[in-house]
Amino acid sequence: MSLLEVAGLQAGYETGQVLFGVDLSVEEDEVVSLLGRNGAGKTTTMHAIVGANVPTVLGGEIRFDGTDLRERRNYQISELGLSLVPEGRRCFRDLTVEENLRLAANHAEDPLSIDDVWDQFPELKDMHDRPSKNMSGGEQQMLAIARSLITNPQLILMDEPCEGLAPLIVRRIESIIKDINGKRDVSVLLVEQNVAVAMAVAERHYVIDEGEIVEELSTEQLRKDEALRQEYLGV
Ligand code: ATP
Question: Domain ABC transporter spans what residues (predicted)?
Fold first, then answer.
């Protein structure tokens, strides 16, 4: 049994259906990417999985560790060990780094200690009393990942964590994702438009187009398939 199993997922908004049968799975200790162009349905897939209010799920199955997530509410889903790092980071701007982390830990059943987080993110420890609004985009992204990690999840869904970041900080985020997976056995489902980032961290890749999964490939296959990258990813 897969850790996360999505089968035949259909979902949409008042304005219309967006997902027309998404099938994907994530195994324990695996990093998987979900690639696709703007508007292909990546964020909608993530939100449907974690039960964010929008979109509306119209059909299909979403199972996490054997539990039917469609029956669960958003806060219950995080208690099961699933965490979303949303696009745009969404840290509490007036709270300090440490306050953001402690707030997330307070809402978790079995959180990591703050020292565990400082070990993984020494740069955040150095700025523990800084309000998040005074941090760079890359630092805020690290805080968003740390805030997710402190809840001690089994699976983290990350929505374009490297968007808009400079190459050096992108390398740092890549190494954080590898560490979280390698040292802490956390699985990651990574939404990306940046194929290079996906190939650097994930072993398996899904390509979504117009609300359907059109390909599932290994990193090696993705690297070789220039025609596919052109057709579905525009690179
Ligand atoms: P992006 O990289 O631009 O975020 P994406 O692959 O994540 O792309 P989605 O955000 O899932 O794509 O959007 C898929 C489709 O759903 C788009 O046509 C978008 O306009 C529409 N959509 C997204 N969010 C909403 C919403 N809250 N209400 C109505 N339509 C939406």
Answer: 4-235
Q: Which of 22, 42, 56, 214 to mutate to test the pocket of ligand 1 (most atoms within 8 A of CB)?
A: 42
Q: What is the mean pLDDT of the chain?
A: 92
185-208 pLDDT tens trace:
999 999 988 999 999 999 999 999
Cα(217)–Cα(110) distance, integer angstroms: 35
Identify the bridge partners of residue 5 per DSSP, sorted by sequence position: 25, 63
CB 4 within 8 A of CB 54: no
- Does 172 map to a domain? yes
Q: What is the pLDDT of residue 53?
A: 58
Q: How many whole angstroms separate alpha carbon 38 and alpha carbon 20?
A: 16
pTM of the model: 0.94
CATH number at residue 12: 3.40.50.300
Q: Is residue 24 part of a domain?
A: yes
pLDDT recorded at residue 120: 94
CA of 205 relative to ligand 1 center, distance in Å: 20
Q: Residue 184 domain-assigned?
A: yes
Print the domain residue range for 24.
Answer: 4-89+155-233
Tell me the CA–centroid distance for residue 40 and ligand 1, in Å. Answer: 7
